[in-house]
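Deliverable D5.2: sample structural annotation.
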Amino acid sequence: MFKTMGIHHISAIVGNVQENLDFYGSVLGMRLVKKTVNFDDPGTYHLYFGNDQGSPGTVMTFFPWNKGFKGRIGTGQVSVTSFAIPKGAMPFWEERFQRYHVKSRKHARFGETYLAFRDPHGLQLELVERAEGEQSIWHFNGVGPDTGIKGFAGAILLSSSPSHTMGLLRNGLGFEVVGKEGHYVRYRSEAEYGNTVDVDVSEHERGRMGTGTVHHIAWRAMDNEDQLKARESIISKGFAVTPIKDRKYFKAVYFREHGDILFEIATDSPGFLIDEDIQHLGESLMLPEEYDPRRLEIEGNLMEIRLREMN
């Protein structure tokens, strides 16, 4: 059976692209590790934020729809994305959110304290202190290794069929059940980042894709061989899985599980250093080879953006 290490990346739909860059790059202090376009829609940016080098399990990606309609968080989606911060960093973020006028609240789940908040376009996010996982060495706008986001802690899944989703997590992706609390069931994998998945088994209305919602969640495959094994395994369970797609920084396959959540299985390699060195990640617009002849046209259709420190 295929066994994933955990979350590879999470991709969401947001609104104004500069607001997205300001919030994740400046307020949250994550590194913009890649500035490219949606490979299926080159008129739209695709921004990747992560740790200092965009390691698997640290990367949140965004499709900014500057004039997009508002989505609705519900079944068939990731409802909450959780980020891991170093032990002792929570007071820093409480004070920082007050200064940046980001509304937040604390709550507990499975013995951990979470700081819940939303991004400017409505995505539901959390911070939680975790000892595991290396600290990011990225410094920007007052956020550094002792306080900065290390990577994913996990995610909450809203499924239209929780029993089917939980069965797939266990028997198709290799997660283990580690606890039940209220209307949540927690699953864990072996990775240091992105290793907890909570399934909300309570009833919710159906989600609607749009700004402020997660588009898909991707699980890690170690390499091409591991991904092929995963694809064959998922197909054998009756799912319709796409052919392998080359996303330049990883290979990807997609399928919609029986709880209506779009899943991806993505390879750890080759990573984000194949077309930029680590000192200059995210500084230039990087395009797949097939779009290079159209660079001037594509750049002309994209809104100009820049990473800036927000006071």
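Annotation notes: The chain has one domain: 7-301. The chain has a mean pLDDT of 97.
The annotation will be released with the project's public dataset once the embargo ends.
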